[in-house]
Structures are given as C-alpha cells and as structure tokens.
Amino acid sequence: MTTQARKPRGKNHIWRVGLAALVVLPAVAFAAEQLRFKPGFNLFSREQDVQVGREGVAQVEKEVPLLKDPAVERYVSDLGRRLAGFAPGNTDYPWTFKVVNSREINAFALPGGFVYVNRGVLEAADDEAQLAGVMAHEIGHVTLRHGTHQASQMMLAQMPLAILGGVLGKGSGLTSQLAQLGISFGVNSLLLKNSRGAESQADEIGTYTLYQAGYDPKAMVQFFGIIEKKYPQQGLQFLSDHPNPENRIKKVDQLISQLGPSRQGRTDSPEFQVAKRRLLALPPPPKAKPTGQPSRSTPSGSAVAPPAPSSRRVEYQGDGFVIAYPDNWEVQQSKDGVTLAPPGGVLSGAQAYGASLSNYVPPQKNWGLIDATQQLLDSMRQSNPNLRVVKQTSLKIKGRAALSTLLENDSPLEGQKEADHLVTVRVRDGMLALILVAPQSAADAYRPTFDAMLRSLDLH
Ligand SMILES: [Zn+2]
User: Fold this and answer.
1) Ligand 1 center to 221 CA (angstroms)
2) Crossing angle, helix 146-158 and helix 46-63, to 10 degrees?
3) Alpha-carbon distance 282 to 265, whole Å?
4) Distance 229 CA to ligand 1 centre (A)
5) Contact between 335 and 195 (Cβ < 8 Å)
6) Which of 1, 123, 168, 460 is 20 to 30 A (C-alpha) from 374?
7) Alpha helices for 90-241 (secondary structure H)
C-alpha cells in the first residue's frame, strides 16, 4: 500500500528585506544582501550533517542503480559544483552529484552535500537551465539543512534534551543510534521528505542560485510545469514530494522581481544537449527491484515475516489525533502523516504490514465524508492500480461520524494479496485517514491488533 494523501503546511518565508536596501551597492551584491537564508533549528553540527549523509550514501547506493557513463557523470558533477558555488550558505560541504539510472523524474539530496539526479530529469528537461533548476533546488535542501532539521524536530518530540545530547555526542555509529529512534536513511526515509515550507525555501534558494549563476531564474518552476503536463506518470514521485506547481510558480515569480535587475539569463549549453543525446541513446535503465525485495529495516535478500505485534502498547501523538500501537513497531514520519509498522513491514517504500495515518484536505470547500473518501481512494489507485473496495460501512469514532472501507489490494510481497482497512473521519479542516494493512495470509493474526488500535484512536 502506498498512499497519496497530503495536507498543506503553513507558509514559511525565509527571506526578508534587510537594511542593506538602504545602502547603494552594485546590483548583484544588492540582491544577495536582500535575501537572508537561514537554516532552522538543528541539533546536529555541520560535521554531523556530513557524517549522516555519508552513512546515508552507503544505504542509498545499495538501493538505487547509479548511471555508469563517465561523460554524463562528469557533466552533471561539474554543473552541480558550479551551482553550489553560487548557493548561499554553502559552507565547504564535500559536494557530490550523481546520476541515478532511472527514468522516473526525480532528484533528492542527503544532508552534507550528496545530491542525486535521476536520468529521467536530464531526458525530460528541455535545456540546461531546467536541469540546473532541479539541482539548485536540491542544493537548497542541503544548505538549509532540511534533513537534519527534520530529524532534530522528530528527536526532540521523542526524547528529553539530556538524552539527546548523549546520542549526538557520540562520534561514530550515529545512524545506528538514529535508527533506534526510527530515523533512517533509505531512499524513502524521512530525511528525504520535506515539508511544504521546506520545499518553498528550496525553491527560493534554487531560484536565487540560478539567477546568481547567470541562468534564467524561471527555469526551475518551468520544469515543474513541464513534468506535470508532459510526464505526469514518470514524475509521480517528484510531484508528490514537490506538489502544487501553480502556487509555486506564483511565489517564485514574486521572488524573481526582488532578485535584482532582470537580465537575459542563460538557458542552454551544447554540453547539456550532448549529455541528453547520450542518455537517450543508452540502453534503458535496469528494471526497478521487484516488489517484495526489502529495501530497509530487513536483512537483505529475504522478505521474512515481521515479528508478531507486541501486546504492550505505546501512544503516538499526531497532528490532531492519538493512537496506541504495539511497542515493537517503528515510527516513520513524513510530511503527510505517520507510518507505524513492524520492523521489515515497509518494503521498497510500500507498506506490507502495519498502519498509516494521514491528513487529507479535499480540494473543494463543502465536502462530504463519502465523496472525500472516494477522492482519496481515487488518488490511492494511481499508485495501487488493483485496489478494490470490498465493503463500505459507517461507524462512529469518539462520537464522530466515520466511514469504514474494506479493501483488497496487491501486497508488496510478491504474488500476495493484501487486506486493507481504511477508516476516514472528519477532523478540524480535513479528513483523517487511517489505513491498516496486512497480507491476506496474515489478516487474522493482525486483526486483534488492528481492532485495538482503532478503539484507541482519539481525536482532538
Ligand atoms: Zn524539494
């Protein structure tokens, strides 16, 4: 089961007009002074960003196939380094830029300067400026330290500061310490998923960096528009991580007017076109790992069943809800909500066992629970084509009208079907969606746990 629900977050402007506006300076320096990019609260040192990033690289490169083409690798690496040189707050990270051999349109960055761009981005981009826009956006996530900022918030929510100091004080094995807190570095990890606010900041840095590097600063958002219109399928992951191009285009346009005098930015280079042609002529990427092959939290090579749910419960306090779950399950937060799963219950980013809770805000103003649930099911079907409704009934959760939908779906475990139970209920400005997932073969074993979780669900 992979879910698509998402909810908007508050806007988070990081740039302000400073006093420098009163001083007469050359145009470029003027723009640089006006924009102040400041990383958020962080428990990690910059050196630790690099350390967790390096450990993440080891994990990520086990999971994704890298493109082995020296000419393209060199081109992307040179472009990335040049852009990083113009990024504000670039403090000597050991920048690396690599190409993932996948046609999916996506890019991501690990803390400390490790940036990955999928082959699909180069193949879909019209020109170098658009590619540079995507890379500059990822560079922005690094210099604003979004990954460790988010990890810090999560740790703070889970532990007293005194213990946190101890965890982060240790020189080595940082990732294993973090793993105990449910913070991991796989391709689908928390550290690569950013809040709406963080995306907006990365857009701003990306646009600023493009301008400083002499590119057309509109190129980044142009590219978002292109993938939304031309490659919606290939860009699914990217669009769900970077939603809402329309709004973003507006915001970036506002920013561009403050960058400095408008000038003819560079859009393309012969090197880009050479690299793009090379890629299009290369053999297609290897097939994605078969579903069922574990990507994280499981020993490699075997899709062993997770340990049985513990009967001891702990509470998870979410945004507008509280739920009790077995104390041997892991918590993985994302911008959309939370996944509660036994170790090994999430395979290649798809949940095979456990629960997930997310907030869904229907697009229209006056919405009903049944319609909104239907919309959610439609959006889930985009990534779960064989999702089928078995039965829908109404129920009450703490006195509120709720909808129970039993579903059948393909399990991420190869050749198996899964039974899903979706419960939707109105909360504040949207709808809370709880999904309970287990392969059909384990449905009976998980039923008592799922029933207890549902009974424990409290809304506020
Ligand atoms: Zn981003």
Assistant:
1) 12
2) 100
3) 31
4) 19
5) yes
6) 460
7) 119-124, 128-143, 146-158, 161-169, 174-180, 196-212, 219-230, 236-241
| Ligand 1 center–CA 241 separation, angstroms | 7
Poorest-pLDDT segment among 147-151, 211-215, 409-413:
409-413
Measured in Å, residue 431 CA sits from the centre of ligand 1 at 25
Cα 139 to ligand 1 centre (Å): 9
Which residues keep their CB under 5 angstroms from ion ligand 1?
Answer: 199, 202
Q: What is the C-alpha to C-alpha distance for residues 250 and 171, in angstroms, rounded to an integer?
A: 44
Give residue-wise pLDDT tens across range 60-99: 898 899 999 999 999 999 999 999 999 987 778 999 999 9
- Adjacent-strand bridge partners of 110: 114
Cα of 238 vs centre of ligand 1, distance in Å, is 8
Helix axes 128-143, 219-230, angle to 10 degrees: 110
Ligand 1 centroid, distance to 382 Cα (angstroms): 21
CA of 304 to the centre of ligand 1 (A): 33
The CA 433 to ligand 1 mean position distance, Å, reads 25
Distance of CA 51 to CAs 56, 67, 147, 312, 373, Å?
9, 24, 13, 35, 43
Domains of the chain plus CATH, in order, are 37-281 (no CATH), 313-459 (3.40.1000.10)
Q: Are 121 and 104 in contact (CB under 8 A)?
A: no
Give the position of tokens 């309970």. Answer: 436
> Virtual CA dihedral for 48, 51, 52, 58, nearest 10 degrees?
180
User: Ligand 1: distance of its center to the CA of 247 in Å?
Assistant: 15
Cα 394 to averaged position of ligand 1 atoms, centre (Å): 38
Count of positions (residues) in the chain: 460
Residue 117: pLDDT over 80: yes
DSSP state, residue 304 = P
CB 289 within 8 A of CB 348: yes
**Measured between alpha carbons, how far is 166 from 81 in angstroms, rounded to an integer?**
35
The C-alpha angle with vertex 238 and arms to 306 and 335, in degrees rounded to 5, equals 60
> Which amino acid appears at position 134 of this protein?
V
**pTM given for the model:** 0.59
Residue-wise pLDDT tens digits, 248-265: 788 888 888 888 887 788
- Please check whether residue 418 is in contact with residue 440, taking contact to mean a CB–CB distance below 8 angstroms: yes
Identify whether the C-beta of residue 439 lies closer than 8 Å to the C-beta of residue 352. Answer: yes
Which sign does the torsion angle of CA 338, 343, 348, 354 carry?
negative
Q: What is the pLDDT of residues 196-209, one digit of tens each?
A: 788 888 999 999 99
User: Is the CB of residue 111 less than 8 Å from the CB of residue 142?
Assistant: yes
Please name the amino acid found at residue 101: N
DSSP letter for 344, please: T
